Amino acid sequence: MAVAHVNIALSGIEFQTQVPVSKKPVATRIMLPVVRAFTGAILNASEKMVRDMGRTASCKPACGACCRQLVPIALSETYEIRQVIEQMPEPRRSLILERFAQIVKTLQTNGMAEKLWEPGRRSEQEIDDVSGQYFSLQMACPFLEDESCSIYADRPIICREFLVTSDPEFCKNPTKETIRPLPIAARASAALMHLDDVPDKPYLQWIPLTLALEWAAKNPEPPPRPGTELLGRFLDCLGKEPESPVPPAMRAG
Ligand code: SF4
Question: Which residue out of 81, 85, 141, 210 has the highest number of ligand 1 atoms within 8 Å of its CB and is therefore the one to mutate?
């Protein structure tokens, strides 16, 4: 295990940190604790920047409005989600699996599952359209319980980045005009997606959270790579404002 000393300057925000990282080959999902730590640091700095401008994040506990959106996750996170579910006790495990299965069935019935398989191949307009259709179905994330996330510590990176400074009431029917997303200095979720880049597939690798189990079942986890290489690639992407499949209402205007 090595310790990486990282100095980052993003959108005028600077911070230093030290992170343990393996020199040995590891699966990308093993890097998730490090990516979560970076996400937390970026969000803290972004919230401070917004506070200095006289605004605050208005998200409140027990508000699950975002959890009915199409939630884009990295392919490496699909294997993490599968493991989180595998470790759940019964009957909770079966309940969550049943919720996933119901949503997959609805997506198939509505002709959306095919559009959302390898969605990085689709145009931004196609994804915007299917995102709108997805939200109109008001399907709660399988992990949403009493309007709160039941896997809070393990939730995907993009769930951590969905914060707004507008009135939370607008989130029930979000539009580009009414939603003011918290501007964040860098999207760790997108940098994580880029760790799954494939040479002969020149598009962003991601999948909706609700298709995670389908993806993980049909695609073996990619071979491990040295942790130091993964961290270097992640930081490189973080500094380059990588392409991100954020739903339309959550894009900064
Ligand atoms: S994982 Fe948690 S935070 Fe993310 S959409 Fe599901 S319930 Fe919401």
Answer: 141
Q: Specify which residues 206 forms β-bridges with.
A: 74
pTM over 0.70: yes
CA distances from 170 to 63, 139, 175, 184 (A): 12, 18, 8, 20
Structural domain harbouring 12: 2-250
Q: Could you check whether the bond before residue 119 is cis, i.e. omega within 30 degrees of 0?
A: no
Closest protein CA for atom 2 of ligand 1: 149
Q: Which residues pair with 148 in a beta bridge?
A: 145
Indicate if the pLDDT at residue 137 is higher than 60.
yes
Overall number of domains in the chain: 1
From the alpha carbon of 155, which atom of ligand 1 is closest?
Answer: 1
Integer-rounded Cα radius of gyration of the chain? 18
Residue among 67, 69, 80, 162 to mutate when testing ligand 1 (max atoms within 8 A of CB): 67
Bigger pLDDT: 50 vs 214: 214
Q: What is the pLDDT of residues 73-98, one digit of tens each?
A: 999 999 999 999 999 999 999 999 99
Instruction: Tell me how far apart the alpha carbons of residues 89 and 71 are, in angstroms, rounded to a whole number.
Output: 25
- Label residue 253 by pLDDT band (50, 70, 90): very low
Percent of the chain with pLDDT over 90: 61
Residue 247 in this model has a pLDDT that exceeds 70:
no
Ligand 1 atom nearest the C-alpha of 162 is 3
Helix axes 227-238 and 32-52, enclosed angle (nearest 10): 20
